[in-house]
Amino acid sequence: MLGFGNSLIDVLAIKNVITQSETTALRGYLSMMPVARTKYYTKKDEEKLRYLITVKPYEEYTWDDVRTLREIADHMIREFRETGREELLDYAYLHMDCRRTPNSRNNRTK
């Protein structure tokens, strides 16, 4: 998620692993979002996502916010499957940590 990405960037900057201009560029990249175009990933999803990752502080996220992010990621994945827009799939997996395995409920240790 964005909060983790920003934290990682902060650590790298504090340790002088990356320069200030690289820090700015990485933060800009983290905040980029795919544009909504069709029926699954909608303008409403884009607006909710923009609010959650650019306005609302990560520390104030509620479980409803997390569910909303997950729903938006699911919409992006559906959109990718129908249209082939790879940037949606990349965004969903890299920025929203939507890794899912088949039968994930059945993979728990008993």
List the helices and strands and how they pair.
Elements: H1 2-14, H2 20-31, H3 43-54, H4 63-83, H5 86-95
Helix pairs in contact: 1-2, 3-4, 4-5
Low-confidence runs of at least 5 consecutive residues:
98-110
The counted number of beta strands is 0
Output the radius of gyration. Answer: 16 Å
Average predicted local confidence, pLDDT: 76
How large a portion of the residues is in β-strands, by DSSP E? under 5%
Task: Spell the H/E element sequence.
Answer: HHHHH
Total helices: the number is 5
**End-to-end distance:** 29 Å
Describe the global form: globular
Task: Give a written overview of the molecule.
There is one protein chain. The protein is built from five helices and no strands. The protein has 110 residues and is mostly helical. It is globular and about 45 Å long.
Short description:
The protein has helices at 2-14, 20-31, 43-54, 63-83, 86-95.
